[in-house]
Amino acid sequence: MADTQLIHVVLVAHHDPVSDWLLATLRSEANVVLTGSLSTLDRAADLIGQRPIDVLLVDTSVTDAKQLDRYQTIAATPGAPASILMVEPTDLAFVQQALFAGARGFLLKPFTQVQLMDSLRQVVQVVAQQRQALGAGMGAPAPRADSAEILALFSPKGGVGRTSLATSLAVALHQESRKRVTLVDGDLQFGDIDIAVNAVARKSIADLLGYVNDLEPSLLESALIDHPSGIRLLLAPPLFDPALEADEGRLAHVIKSLSAVQGGYVVVDAPSGLSESTLNLLDVAQRVLLVTAASVASLRATKRFLELSAKMDYPEEKIALVLSGYRKDADVPLEDIERHLARPIASVIPSDPLTMAQALNQGQPIVMRDRNHAVSKAIIKLARHLGAGTASASPARSEPSSAPAAPGSRPMSMISALRPKQALGS
């Protein structure tokens, strides 16, 4: 194996000083991508097939790490990662059983960073051979021809109008394509889709999470709500329920199941930030609309996410950059933003904060409220390009609105603010 080849690792361990050392060690290695850090083997197994994983690094002191059937199930999964066990000297009898069950190797505690990396490099060769034999790629499985395309709207930083854009885009996709469109609220704790479309969540995603292994089409249909615009809704629970946090990883499976039983589009309003559940949603999406604004904080977060997406082996065509709330005469020139992000802007949504706030507060998507508004025209144009499958390759820009620049303002200085500066005290 080449020393430059990336090794995707999921750590399964308790939160303690040893796991802190492991996390720091894995992150310090240039060719290691830490895909996740979880407290149970069961949760780690749920990630298989959702994102690239080469190695499960398992501390056998965690709750379910000594259940041999779990290693058998993992080893039998197409494209499965290799399991490396971290064990005490007294666990050698279990190690022998685990190796027969499908584990690929073990590390005897305590071990050094050199021993850890040697084990990872050796065992990943087995993974590569296994994947080559099975013909399994590292991405999500290709959808069936009649499955709905999953579009996820995501912004690393909040406050860029992502939810308003998601609701209007779903309506515009339905109007332009005449296909079935389902809008999904991906934020189980603080979702606002119901407010944005003036709907009451009598049924919600919470009604499905307990049946992720038995999602029959009739059960999925029972949780959907019809909207006057013609789209259908899968809403977040109407009441805050902290218990749902443990179930967020199942949402991606619900969305994949929903896609498999309908045509058209599934539009997902994914939460900001990079939790495990959000990454799962982005993994299952065929296309990610990365929503940003022309501000220092938003552009910096967007650039960081683009760098992360490259490490996660996302193909460039999967991500389409959408610039929201843009003011042509006051914000940084589009060419400078594209140069900074090293990515073309697929769509520019002009700024009209007052109108957008009114539409959100009244629960009426802007494309339903005023189809001839500049914001509506930009969203409709984006919907047409998405329907044609060209949003990533062919920018769908609309002429942004003009706003007077503040006296003495220098838009170019904002891009320079994003460049690395000398550390204080150096």
Description:
With 426 residues, the protein is α/β, with parallel strands linked by helices. It is 39% helix and 16% strand. The protein has an 8-stranded mixed sheet, sandwiched between helices. The protein has a 5-stranded parallel sheet with strand order 2-1-3-4-5, sandwiched between helices. Helix 6 (162-177) crosses helix 16 (374-388) and helix 10 runs parallel beside helix 11. The longest helix has 22 residues, at 113-134.
The CATH topology of the largest domain corresponds to Rossmann fold
| Proportion in helices | 25-40%
For the record, the CATH class of the largest domain is: Alpha Beta
Widest β-sheet, arrangement of strands: 8-9-7-10-6-11-12-13
Instruction: Name the overall outline.
Output: globular
Instruction: Return the average pLDDT rounded to an integer.
Output: 83
Number of helices: 17
- In CATH, the homologous superfamily of the largest domain goes by the name P-loop containing nucleotide triphosphate hydrolases
| N- and C-termini, Cα separation | 39 Å
Which architecture of the largest domain does the CATH hierarchy give at level 2? 3-Layer(aba) Sandwich
Oligomer: single chain
Radius of gyration: 23 Å
Query: Pairing-aware structural class of the strands and helices?
Result: alpha/beta
What is the number of strand segments?
13
- State the order of secondary-structure elements, H for helix, E for strand: EHEHEHEHEHEHEHHHEEHEHEHEHEHHHH
Catalogue the unreliable spans: 134-144, 401-414, 420-426
Largest sheet data: 8 strands, mixed
Strand content: 15-25%
Our count of domains comes out at: 2
